[in-house]
Amino acid sequence: MRHINVALFVPHNGCPNQCSFCNQRAISGHRNQVEPSDVDSAVNIALKNPESRGGEIAFFGGSFTAIERETMVSLLSAAYKYVENGSFKGIRISTRPDAIDEEICKLLKSYGVSAVELGAQSLDDSVLALNKRGHTAEDIVKATKLLQKEGFETGLQMMTGLYGSTDEDSIETAEKIIALHPDTVRIYPTVVLENTHLCDLYRNGKYQPQGVEEAAEICAVLLEMFENTGIKVIRTGLHSGGDVEGEFVAGAYHPAFKEICESKIYLKKATEFIRQNKIAEGRIEIRVSPKSVSQMTGQKKANIQALRKLGYEAKIVADDSVEKYKVYILRNETL
Asked: Are strands 191-193 and 248-251 parallel, antiparallel or unpaired?
């Protein structure tokens, strides 16, 4: 059964740095600090949906463990009572790698926090410095290992296409993340928003962001890397909503970004299958998981058209026996 999480955004409070890409107000759509009463309101709305039971109360945005301690505790306390009464399985937070230590871990545990996501963004120190992150790759490694040692479900968030970054160092970051064995990962291609240092660099001609297609190519590679090592990718691409559309300047923003990435994976899998099995041109039947039919088809039938250019008329068929990111192709002149 799918569970619904209650997400509350804590905009930028607590961050000691203004990262090059960060405009939390645009990303979250929130200007004001969340208060305990906001937790109660959000939870009461969510509880009207039976699917919310078994989910988590999540505090995203900013750096939760770096906000003023009294405020943080008040929010945790407001959420924890719903964990204690069984309405939710736990509390999820996101924070900075350099805002995690043993004392913080103890406090989080005492209020029912079950999952912590770290905004790693990159494990290349030069990329971190250029983007004004204010911490090192070693800080990410230490925080991740401490969270794992303390028994938290641990997630890492990474970004592609940052100022000074290349696809090669994004792959290296993914490899280092895999070596840390997190439970979950989020992949965010860089988006240039108004009122950010990155926007200034872009307008001064010092930074050229990747577009959707270019970013999707590298993110598709990363998705496969994580999938092949059993690490769950719980988000690919900046979420829609908030004021992202209103503050968007340039970069890889698309409301269906993950589907675009997965379509690239499926086209690659199909062409590899055709080549390896020496399937002659003509009519073919491509069997995929029922949940992957649209990804194999591609947006606006892009994959169908790409295969047609290679000499294949493809019909996509849902097949429960085919696993995610797998394809099975048959020649079928009767189609």
From this structure: antiparallel
Q: Is 112 helix (H, G, I), strand (E, B) or coil?
A: coil
Q: Where are the domains of the chain?
A: 6-254, 261-331
Q: Do residues 163 and 98 lie in contact, with contact meaning Cβ atoms separated by under 8 Å?
A: no
The residue type of 301 is: K
pLDDT of 185 reads 98
Ranges of residues in the chain whose predicted pLDDT is under 50: 1, 28-30
- Residue 91, CB-side half-sphere exposure with 13 Å CA sphere: 27
How high is the pLDDT of residue 28? 45
In this structure, which topology does domain 6-254 adopt according to CATH?
A: TIM Barrel (3.20.20)
CATH of 261-331, one of 3.90.1580.10, 3.40.50.150, 3.40.1260.20, 1.25.40.10: 3.40.1260.20
What pLDDT does residue 117 have?
A: 97
Identify whether the C-beta of residue 160 lies closer than 8 Å to the C-beta of residue 210: yes
Cβ 17 vs Cβ 67: under 8 Å: no
Q: Find tokens 């029922």 and name the residue.
A: 290
pTM over 0.85: yes
Buried residues in 61-73 as b, exposed as e (16+ CB within 10 A): bbbbbbbeeebbe
Task: Give CA–CA dist 5/43, Å, rounded.
Answer: 9
Supply the pLDDT for residue 29: 45
pLDDT of residue 242: 59
Q: Tens digit of pLDDT for each residue in 78-87?
A: 999 999 999 9
Count of residues in the chain = 335
Would you report the helix, strand and coil content of the chain in percent, each value rounded to 5? 45, 20, 35
Q: Which of 95, 173, 94 is nearest to 127 (CA)?
A: 173
